[in-house]
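Changelog-linked ticket: adenosine monophosphate example.
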Amino acid sequence: MEPGKVKIYTCGPTVYDFPHIGNLRAYIFSDTLRRMFEFNSYQVSHVINITDVGHLTSNADSGEDKMELASRKQHQSAWDIARFYTEIFKNNLIEMNIASPTVWSPATDHIQDQIDLIKKIEAAGCAYTTSDGVYFDTSKFDSYGYLARLDIDGMEPGSRVEFNGEKRNPTDFALWKFSIKQGDRQMEWQSPWGLGFPGWHIECSAMAMKYLGKTIDVHTGGIDHIPVHHTNEIAQSESVTGQKFVNYWLHVAFLTVESQKMSKSAGTFITLKEVIDRHYDPLAFRYMALTSHYRTGLNFTWEGLRGAQKALVSLREKVAQYQYEEVAPDGESLSEFRGRINNDLNTPQALAFLFEVVRSTLPDTVKRATMLEFDKVLGLKLDKIPAESEAPQDVVDLLVQRQQFRREKNWQESDRIRREIVAKGYDVEDTPEGSRVIKKGL
Ligand code: AMP
Ligand code: ZN
């Protein structure tokens, strides 16, 4: 909207568990988007929220708050759970070379902003109160569902979201939920409607508008947010302001494993810690993410990650070999790269072009400068010198094989592989978190 400036809001994590690498794909995407704008000399204001209250297990308006449930399961207070996983998430972003946003906004620090927005929604005639909370009346918002192209008229009650008898329309959603009785929850606040907590969607409308204004340039999230979360953010915001909430919605497709969405609630997920424990560079995963377009699903395999790591290391080796000299990057290559990255963030083509530069006849010093200029968008730390202490790929492969035998309790094979690793000059250390190799004498 404003020349030279761009405002981006990114839906953040729900901090009740470790992020999985599917979640990280979403933030690698928003980071690459931000870097692309900066590469084009935009000044970026970027907000990421932290969902530390109100996200229920059903994704709609029933079930338990994920934070309170995690608190019971993990025997920690909901507040400690939120603090712990927020820290883990931020550390994961550092490992992935993802820049901190201009503003981090935890939902629990913005309860008053959310209450104020609900009051405005009520004043606009779009809210009603039931025995368990305050709801948004989606029939009062004419364009409800346009983002997801929802067929509201053809929707049977309960067909998309479970239908609570007091809701006026199946698509209505909670703005504020009541505590069943005082002390029943750890996270609860007084409000004009009664003691309780905010619904999941209201935090994003309230915080996006607080920090970025009534209309924002770009809003990102995963494709799972289109039919409910983002559809509801639009209704909440536009019913109050009467103006467009978001100019461009960008949604990232899923990371899958064996064609199933990687998800926290299913409990089948791979964390960054596992990637690191298996001796992969976290940025090998970033590389892997960049090999697919953000709107295309990406299927994760360890084999694929191995290929990504190899490619990344080979690029770093090139940069390390090329002589450093203070020279300008190649102008023609830069404009080719810019064209690819500016074309709806076509990272697979941008990466392919990086290899074209390596193979080109440009002087090595210019290749180096050009590659590092591209790296401002790719974020792969191409100038990192491949560490000598890192175990070579054949040792890592042996370790992975051995871990599989250990899982199968095949001690004979696991011992045989240990001897092979030792013969290659490495010691194996088994810890409760997994096994690692250490170069002998280090
Ligand atoms: P959550 O912590 O579940 O609220 O999710 C944080 C972000 O990760 C959201 O933008 C989700 O859309 C996104 N996300 C969740 N699962 C995946 C996945 N398997 N692949 C890509 N993005 C995902
Ligand atoms: Zn959101």
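Closing comment: Example verified and attached. Residues 302-321 form the longest helix (20 residues). The chain has a mean pLDDT of 91.
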